[in-house]
Amino acid sequence: MNVTLVRPRELGSAERRLWRQMLRQDGATGGNPFLAPEFTIAVDRVRDTARVAVLEDPSGVLGFFPHERRGHPLGIAIGTAIGAGISDCQALIHTPGLQWDARELVRGCDLPVWEFDHLIAAQEPFVPYHTAVTASPVMNLADGFDAYLRARSHHTSAIRTAQRKMRKLEREQGELTFEFDCVDPAVMQTLMRWKSDQYRRTRAHDTFGSGWIVQVVTGLRHSRQPGCTGTLSVLRAGHRPIAVHFGLRSERVLSYWFPAYDPDLARYSPGLVLLLRMAEEAARRGITQVDLGRGRQRYKDEFASGKVRVAQGRVGVSRTVSAARRTGAALHSGVSWTLERRALRPVKQLAKRARGSLSGRGVHGG
To answer: Quick one: how far is CA 210 from the chain centroid?
Structure first.
């Protein structure tokens, strides 16, 4: 098997059609829009690091492996997933039944190591290189939205609560209207502003503070390919946007990507109301799955009716570079854990004082 490296923009229309055909034929990848050529090309438009390894033998093209060659302070090129940091699904796209060697693939890309964090765990040649596997929640709409509601009715009250808040929201804030595929650029600007405000409030990294991410997302908003359609959904009360979401959809999957809502209306949970309306319309359009993405948020467990296994890890060709990257990842994890413990220390001290005030000594002794 021969590996040829190209820039994604260099792929011809026939190669892109073949890529899409492979996705439709592969049940393991589920037709996820992050695996479509349009996502890779959108990254390539704004990042010179984007590459595609084209796998071939005498019979023709066998697969496509999108990735990036990101620089390192020591001058070493480190391989990452395409769009690492915003990509919610990663894989080798290939013909049915293809067998490959993961290390030979990475060596063919002229990389010392390739790192991934949302890799389809079912791709067996990568399994020895997994460092963690996570069950990523999905809403299963294969039998329709009503069937989804019935399946969840015995497991959680979260959906009933969201439906109740939907009615309360309409009574108190005005008639609700929903638009599944909005093209108004002002709505996209509202989403980015709300999302950046949310990141600042929660002291999280502001994704939209990265110029390349803004450019990729803005470019994908105009993508109309069936396998990767930018979808901006908005819930309004009266004529006022109160919750907005931007994601990607294919014929089968809607990827839940960037949700945001008006924080002044947080008591109504407008984001969850919007999610339900999106799922209902997605099912009507024949979409069989809403991929909620990996994460520990409570609402994902409450709304999910299935799981998809995704993996983190690295495929190393150079033992030295792989060891260095493992050490760096471990140090980063340790620092994050230490900072989290320090951040929680005042909370724990406050809780301890509160318990003391409720004890017998605290009540009677002042």
So the answer is: 17
